[in-house]
Specification:
single chain; alpha/beta; Arc Repressor Mutant, subunit A; pyruvate-formate lyase- activating enzyme
Length: 465
Amino acid sequence: MTSGNGITSVPVELLRKYDRPGPRYTSYPTAPVWSEKTGPRDYANALKSASLHAGRSLAAYVHIPFCRKRCYYCGCNTYITRSGKRVENYVGTLIEEMEQTAGHLGGRKKISQLHFGGGTPTFLNIMQFDSILKDFGRYFEFTPDCEKSLEIDPRVTTSEQLEFLASRGFNRISIGVQDTDALVQKAIGRIQSYELVSRVVESCRKLGFKGVNIDLIYGLPRQSELRFHESLAKAIALKPDRVALYNFAYLPGIKTHQSRIDPDDLPPAEIKYRLFAEAVRMFTGAGYRQIGMDHFALPDDELSVAQNDGRLYRNFMGYTVQSSPDMIGLGMSSIGYINSSFFQNQSGLEAYMNAVSDTGLATYRGMKLSDDDLVRQTVIMSLMCNFRLDFYDIRKQLGIDYLTYFYDEHQRLAEFFADGLLVMRNGGIEVTPVGRTFIRNIAMTFDSYLSKDPPGSKPTFSRTI
């Protein structure tokens, strides 16, 4: 519930009620329903079709998979190495894939959003990063307002690297913090002092990065209500522009390195609910707006402004105001969205490099969206980003009557209305402040693929809380 001073309090009984496996909706349809029948030729054809819209900008995601050491909690697609030769070969392959992608796109060159993820992008040295960026400049053209962002590990990122990135126009930084408590850090194999994180944040401010994000995780081993409260207070003291608060999914059967975590150290479900509820309370109490279920932004941050105006957008790089309809993915496991189709690269390092060597592209699965997929994608993204559905806008944009097209789905929303998570307002549906925590559950109502899972099938997704 929301108090008069804007603090959102999430009842634990609702967290308990709605905690179930569900998609994060960085895409719709979600990756588990994509087909491996889609390959490099399909991607090349989609890029060529997209080239016909030369005036439209693109988003670009670049995956740098390398880390020196694997953190026990990690769920990312990473590769542990100290081999300089392997990294050099990867950079060369990445540039080759970039050249081939640009060739298929013809005259469509403008990039309005660039994001480096990982792994650890700052695993690369300055010369390697410079090589990639120079080739981006050869094959593409950055728009004057291009959002350039990357993820950094404060333990391996130098002041020289930050100065270099700032000089190349990077304007947003996402810093992996996870938790500031020493006992939790030891339990997850990631030791980094609060003083180090504070110095990195201060350096980013001095260098002019207009957006500083920090990543936190709840549900980690050794987390308690008191220790997590103290970690949240320290995070707020850093005054980041944005915060991403992720749910730790313990899956040692899939991520074998997570077996180094003692399951007895994990907070029980009831405590985990309270950790999340406390985070929502503290961040909203500190003046942050809730963006989606698990992101927060200061009121004057462009994400908050865009959400207020109904202009927020979401893709595999997260929430953004850069609503490029098409995105290219470069590097191992990267995902692109081109010409209303998803395409994902090979997820193994050798498989990726061999595929680019053989065909110039590395696509191994994907999906072309149907008309119904595109309708549902629009509705789900509107809910996930802007917390509302305007029936008139849906009719104008999609040519459908919401209450007719989604008659059955709307009936299934009754439980959310009854629990105070949704209201009917101004010719549409609006998510209440407390309902924002359950936005994934609400969006699942419109997902036509969830009902197609065979009985007894294993959950594909992490839990929503």
